[in-house]
Design a protein that fits this description.
Elements: H1 2-10, H2 12-35, H3 56-73, H4 76-87, H5 91-138, H6 140-161
Helix pairs in contact: 2-5, 2-6, 3-5, 4-5, 5-6
Length: 168
Amino acid sequence: MDRSLKILKKEAKSIALSAVAVFVFLLVFQLREYFSGEVFVWKSIKPLSAPSFWNRAFYSAFTFFTFGAFLYWIKFYKLLYAVLVDIFDARRLYESVKGLLWIALMWVSYHWTIPAIFDGLNLSASIVFNLLSLSLYLLPPVGISMIVTLALWYIIVKNESNPTRKVV
């Protein structure tokens, strides 16, 4: 975890600039919506969709890093090994139970966990989109000034990180 924090701290400026660029694009898009003359209507958007079932590698990795890591952390596999292999001397049964458990966890990931995550992400994207659209609909000068301010800030900060580049 320490390595991840170092990388995040090192790349924080780049991450922030990317977020600002996306935010400016979103505000420009909202401005286009405003000037098209349409009245504000709450829209349900779903920009993200869950991957298909055939992306087994994704589900296996997701299961490994979530449910599998949790089971390893609570030492479930050690307990299972102790019961099935050490006590009953049934190594094949241990491997079969572990495989069936893995398939069950991947099934849970596919049918409940991943759809719930994507539903939550889509809900939050929809809320942000609609709140920005509503704020731009109610206060267009504020939205325009936010776009201009963020665009200028982005250009200035981007120019500071690359002093050889000139702003036109």
